[in-house]
Design goal:
The protein has 209 residues and is an alpha/beta fold. Helices cover 43% and strands 15% of the residues. It is built from nine helices and five strands, in the order αββαβααββααααα. The chain has a five-stranded mixed beta sheet with strand order 3-2-1-4-5.
Length: 209
Amino acid sequence: MASPTPAPSLHFERQAWQAGAEWVAGVDEVGVGPLAGPVAAAVVALPRGRRYRWYGEVRDSKVLTEAARQRLAAAIRRDVPWAIGWATVEEIDRIGILPARRLCMLRACEQLAVRPGAIISDALDLPLPNVRPVIDGDALSVAVAAASIIAKVARDAVMVDLCARYPGYGFCRNKGYPTPEHRQRLAERGPSPVHRKSYAPVAQHALPW
């Protein structure tokens, strides 16, 4: 029997609070692997001296059900400061996915209503003060896990909207990820305007627009 997924902790947050930070932010991005749609990042700031029930419930968004993500996202948005940043399909194609990941993270941090004394980033270094990149941060840090949930819910909603605008690719189901159905539809129909032309599976089917 597989062991349960370990819960993220406040280990990194506590270190920052003990060093004097009033607010510790976690930042994470979602949407790196899809063939279509934007990449999104969210930042969530946790205050020193407060605890919320959902601290014990958050996980990496990838291991949660959609219903759990929706419920937790609502609680996080209600209780603490948060913000979302985006990088468009055009920006991904122009500058590449790694710079686009940093770009949307920076855009999220710029919009945060509080100034965090420390930032925990999911693996990526950022040109901001007091950033601590943590590999697998969304599985280890409560703040980063909360950010991953906010970002995932927001991006999924965008992909549902794009499903209505560009029917025939199954974006409502696959959220742009390269499922067998999505690959088949891409081969049959060619790319939509929101497909990432710089990604090889899309480029091989690219058509003039």
